[in-house]
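step: validate -> pass
step: tokenize input -> pass
step: predict -> running
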Amino acid sequence: MKLLGQAVFLLLLVGICCQNNRNAKAKSSKKSAGTQGGDVVQSPTAADLTPASTENMRGTGGSAEAAGREGAAGARAAGQQAEDMRLQFLKNTQVTCNDGTAAGFYLKEFRGSRRWLLFLEGGWCCYSKETCDSRYQNIPRLMSSSGWPQTKRGTGILSSQAEENPHWHNANIVFIPYCSSDVWSGTGPAPTPPPRQRQGREKERERNVNATEYTFMGSLIIQEVVKDLIPKGIKQAKVIMLSGTSAGGTGVLLNIDRVANQLAQLGAETQVRGLVDSGWFLESQQQRSPNCPETVSCSPEDAIKIGLRLWNGVVPDRCRQLYKRGEEWQCFFGHKLYSTLSSPLFVVQWLFDEEQLRVENIFMGGQSLSEEQWQYIRNLGRLLKNSLRDVTAVFAPSCLSHTLITRSNWKSFQVKGNSLPRALQCWDRSLEATRNNRTPAKGCPFHLLDSCQWPQCNPTCPALVDQATQQELTLLQMLVAMGLDPQKLGLDPQGEEDSVASMVSNGG
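step: predict -> pass
step: emit ->
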């Protein structure tokens, strides 16, 4: 009986060893097949052995057929999750979202890649107790991490699919949720003004200082994310792209040089670049009351003037030195900040940005539009284009829209026959050539401003949608639906298609 028991034990031991060998070979084969793409090297480490994989390698003593079925099911599940970014909270628990919950980031590693893409989420801001309370009630995920999901799936430039994201799919991708409401500028609770400054500011103090029940740490969150990525290999990166949309795009402008300096102090020899999408705002062109208790009635500069004190916000040093105390808000506007920055920047900007229009209470696809508002729209396109002429790398379609780089169809939009992914690749090659003292290749453009002057004159523009019916409309159809006479505006309904086609063929 004793001998029989020993024999059974030996048979089980041999079975486990064989199963371990098969698992190890399969894992090795999968590794060699999965490593591909630019700036990628094979670097298998002990970190490859996750708790789940080591559990599988222990074996269960079951039949080979059962083990095969379990292995196939596990491989399918792993494949479905391979594209997901997983949530990680900051190690420094003192740096938090507005409501004191833990800030964090989502990460999808591409093992061996020396390219990193860090993305700042957008979502405007709040700048007073009333606006922050309203934001917390209506969009709590922008102020708290309590409801964040464990995983996220990236789209556009955050996608891990080569067909959707040809140039950055094989990068380490980091999505940083926006939960600080400060345009990524805050560094903690706002300081209390000295007694002599409090006189005559009772209303402002009541409206703003009381809102310090919230914390504003956007800039600190970015710094802590970079720290937490050091064990993941970000110090060894060849290229780091700090990107963002809307308020996240403005956050890139405000933080790009700070991130570059932080990595340089850590000894990294990486090049930090910025990608600003729909964050290149202009000051309001309309006169308003200085009191703006509601977000929709407050101009961008007024919101930022008030918010900066509340957020204890910071702006880049070189820009701050250009303006006297109290005027630092001007550094939130790209056309004033751009020339003071050291890091390379690529600006993506719709020339008729819907968010720029929203803050002027202009809503395309809404119930009505006045002739004055239409002229404002036309003028916005001219002003935005002029503000971008001296930007080295730019992609600016003449369209009515907002945000671009995270759209799954982002490859479909073109300026002068070039898509944004293509322009980013040209910019990338130009920067690499410059770093290596080579002459950049010709015929690969990355300064792309639409030539045509009308909203939607670019044939690749996103479709306009009537907000009431959700139907897609042409620009002329929408103007008529909003109560305007195209002929009074100088638009000929019969000849408009020909004129637009002409503008497009002339470089639009």
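step: describe -> The longest strand covers residues 239-245.
step: cleanup -> pass
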